[in-house]
Amino acid sequence: MVDYDIKDITLANKGALRIEWARNNMPVLGLVGERFRKEKPLKGLKIACCLHVTTETGVLTEVLKSGGASVVLCASNPLSTQDDVSAKIIRPITGT
To answer: If exposure means fewest CB atoms within 10 Å of the residue's CB, which of 58, 62, 63, 96 is most exposed?
Structure first.
């Protein structure tokens, strides 16, 4: 289990909607994600990122994970961190 510190885990559903919107507006990263899901070029790699946690970052982490990577994300600036996106990255939506 990975430790995390986010404002409100219950914001995950809202974050999922925002990430979905961003994914639909990032066609090139979507193509990379399709390829990664098939080929798993990052299988076995551990990737650590220190980035602004935004909807775009949410899409990037999904693509890296779909490529087989284990991803750890650290927010680079608490003032630019989108709390709902952070919650979604931490908690996959399971319908609860």
So the answer is: 96
